[in-house]
Amino acid sequence: MMPQPPASNGPVLRDIHLPPAPPWWPWAPGWWMLAALLLLMLVAAAWLWRRHRLLRQQRRLLLGELEMLAASHVRDGDDAALAASLHQLLRRVARRHDEAAAKQRGESWRRTLARVPVAPPVLDRLMVLEQAIYRPQAKFDVPATLAAARNWLQAAARPRAWMPPATEPGHV
Hints:
- The protein has 172 residues and is mainly alpha-helical.
- It has a domain of 102 residues.
- The chain is 59% helix and 0% strand.
- The chain is built from five helices and no strands.
- Helix 2 crosses helix 4 and helix 2 runs parallel beside helix 5.
- It is rod-shaped, with a radius of gyration of 35 Å.
């Protein structure tokens, strides 16, 4: 026996239709988040690059000023003027991180200098400047003092290198 064709009184079925392809615009929420994250990363990278460039330029200016002081000392040989200029440069840099650095003397000035991680002999060499600026015939080891100042300035030019101030004994 042969199968009978289906009755024509039923619904006419059509072939399966695929939905239309998703449009490229507007983006799905995930793409918007990815674009925002990418934009945020670009802004952060530009800010870090600019900050690094400014810090490098600042360090270059400080070391250039130190070299100018050294060249001036070679020309005129005035140890007292070199000591005063170096001391002023160190105070100016320290004042950026500690307002009290402009008025400190003795041990408090040493503690401010020690907030920058340098070796104790470097601090000892820099402390000689504080005494030399008050003497008319200041005698100190100029090359060693210039090297100590260069070492301290290179470290001090990085803001993250500065340690928090230590509390003084007797103060809360």
